[in-house]
Structure formats: C-alpha cells, structure tokens
From TrEMBL:
Keywords: Hydrolase. PANTHER family: MONOACYLGLYCEROL LIPASE (PTHR43798), MONOACYLGLYCEROL LIPASE ABHD6 (PTHR43798:SF5). Coiled coil: none annotated. The keyword Hydrolase applies. GO terms for cellular component: membrane. It comes from the Bacteria. Residues 256-269 have a biased composition (Basic and acidic residues). Residues 256-298 are annotated as: Disordered. This is Alpha/beta fold hydrolase. GO terms for biological process: acylglycerol catabolic process. Residues 283-298 have a biased composition (Low complexity). One of its GO terms (molecular function) is monoacylglycerol lipase activity. The lineage of its organism: Bacteria, Bacillati, Actinomycetota, Actinomycetes, Kitasatosporales. InterPro entries: AB_hydrolase_1, AB_hydrolase_fold, AB_hydrolase_sf. It comes from Streptomyces taklimakanensis.
Length: 298
C-alpha cells in the first residue's frame, strides 16, 4: 500500500464530497484550472491521501488537481455487495467524476487505479485530455505478488478487517518497518484500512490476479498517454512497463529514487514530469469547457 509522507492539506486545498450522477465521492481538491484539470485515481487499498504530496507542486504549475477515494475506499464508502465493485462499475464512476468536474480531464491512475482508468478510457475516451498510467502494468500483477494477494482475499472471507490488518503487519518484510513513519501517518494507515469496504478489497484484489492484457485496445484510442513509474516496482516489473509504453507509443518517465509510489516518494520530480506531459498535450489549456462551470462547492 502507498504511504503518504504527511496528511496536512496544502494552503488553498479543500476536502469535500464531489456530487456525481453515480453518488458522492470524497475528494481533495487543489489549484485552479489555468492549464487544465487532473483527476487522480488511487490503487489497491489506497486513497486520495496517496496523492497529497502532489497537490501543491501541481497547483503551482497551473493545474486543478482532484484526488478521489473510489467507491468502497476510505471516506467514500459503498455497499456490502461484490457486484458494486466490478471493474466496469468503477470505470463508470470515473466517467461520472469527470463529467461532474467539467471539461476534458487529465486522468491519472496509480497501480490498480491505472487498470480502472484504462477501463474508463476504453469505455469512453471523450471526457479525457490524456491518460497517465502510474506504476501499473499491461495485465495482472507479477506472479511473485499472487500468493500475498490470494492470502489477503482468503483471509477477508473469514476474518474481520482488524484481524487481517494485524496479520498483514506480521507478514510485512523487515524493510516495511514503520520506524521513521510519523505516528499520525501510522495511525492513518490503520484507520484507512478499517474504513475500506471488505467486498471492494476482495473484488479489486481478484482483478489484480486476472486482469487481461488490454494494451493493444488502449493503443488504438487516439489519446496522449504517459507511463510513469519508479526505478523499482514489486507489482509490475519496470521492464514490463517499458515495453507497455513502447506498445502504446506513450511518453515514458522513470522517477529516480522512487519505487511503487513515486507520487508519495518523489513528489516534486513526479509532479514535474506529469505537468510537462500535460503541457505538451493538444488543447491543454481547456481544463474547463467553455460555458461549463467547474464543480467546486463554496
């Protein structure tokens, strides 16, 4: 799971619930859309806080940035029904969020969020100005990660979220030790896990194990694409993402010093690469369509 470096929103950023045709979603919203608007989609067991360190540097570069808790994640909530978390349902949520924000949106999906973002673009690319796939690959996660993910899914069938949390901590490798992590962040990670809807974790976990290769279909969509990752990745090997970028004819960025969560681990470098890509996209200044008000309460 991604670990935000801090939890305090930057000046001018706000937390609220974004109203859409498919319900309300908890978001962090920062910046003004002078150069465009971006929608940031978190990964498996993640949340909008995974992008908190990107808000200020992207806002400084002229972008409105909206990071979202998906259905069943953290502060958004959702039903105790596995069918609600099918990939096509989550993709339609992204399309509804983009419609609520207005204009053409730079879509960013991290890890599992990259697979959902891809599904949304394949269903309807018209709301989007570009797609950035961050630390996400062409198909299912690496075989080395299957055992841990299957164990998590099996545990959630018989155990409560707190018991599973304790078991996961015992299975963490030594390098995942929380020493050096601020106490508030450690408490947040625990609280976020408990707030996730178990059915959402189960369904998205299964999807990570079976996701098909849809790169050729995505390559056929005439949308600017960017594949961004760290130097090391445990979920999808970096060479696999290199090859995916080649197949997509996408811009490729490898953030030095980062692993699976470059937005949290190297936010300034990651923001610079994202903004440079967006500035190069056709129609980049159309963050909000003419005559379409941005959905920003207050």
């Amino acid at each position: 799971m991604s670990k935000p470096p801090f939890l305090t929103l930057p000046p001018g950023a706000r937390a609220y619930r974004l109203a859409t045709s498919r319900g309300d979603f908890a978001v962090h919203d920062a910046g003004e859309p002078r150069a465009g608007t971006a929608l940031l989609v978190p990964g498996f067991t993640g949340s909008k806080e995974d992008f908190i360190a990107l808000l200020a540097p992207l806002a400084r570069r002229g972008f409105r940035v909206v990071a979202v808790d998906g259905r069943g994640q953290h502060e958004t909530g959702g039903p105790r029904d596995e069918a609600a978390y099918a990939q096509e349902e989550l993709a339609r949520d992204l399309l509804a969020q983009a419609a609520a924000l207005g204009g053409r949106i730079h879509l960013v999906g991290h890890s599992m969020g990259g697979l959902v973002a891809r599904a949304a673009v394949l269903e309807d690319a018209s709301p989007f100005a570009s797609l950035t796939i961050m630390s996400s690959g062409p198909a299912a996660i690496a075989p080395a990660q299957h055992v841990r993910t299957r164990r998590l899914i099996e545990a959630l069938a018989v155990l409560d979220m707190e018991t599973v949390w304790r078991a996961m901590r015992e299975l963490d490798p030594p390098e995942a030790d929380d020493e050096g992590t601020p106490p508030a962040v450690r408490e947040f990670l625990h609280r976020r896990w408990l707030a996730n809807v178990p059915e959402q974790v189960v369904v998205t976990g299964r999807r990570l194990l079976i996701e098909p290769d849809r790169v050729d279909a995505l390559a056929a969509v005439p949308l600017p694409k960017h594949v961004l990752s760290g130097e090391v990745d445990y979920a999808w090997p970096v060479p696999l993402m290199d090859e995916m970028a080649r197949r997509l004819e996408a811009r490729r960025t490898v953030v030095e010093g980062a692993e699976h969560s470059p937005g949290a681990e190297r936010p300034e470098e990651t923001a610079a690469a994202m903004a440079a890509f967006w500035h190069d996209c056709p129609g980049r200044a159309a963050g909000t369509a003419p005559g379409t008000p941005a959905n920003r309460p207050g």
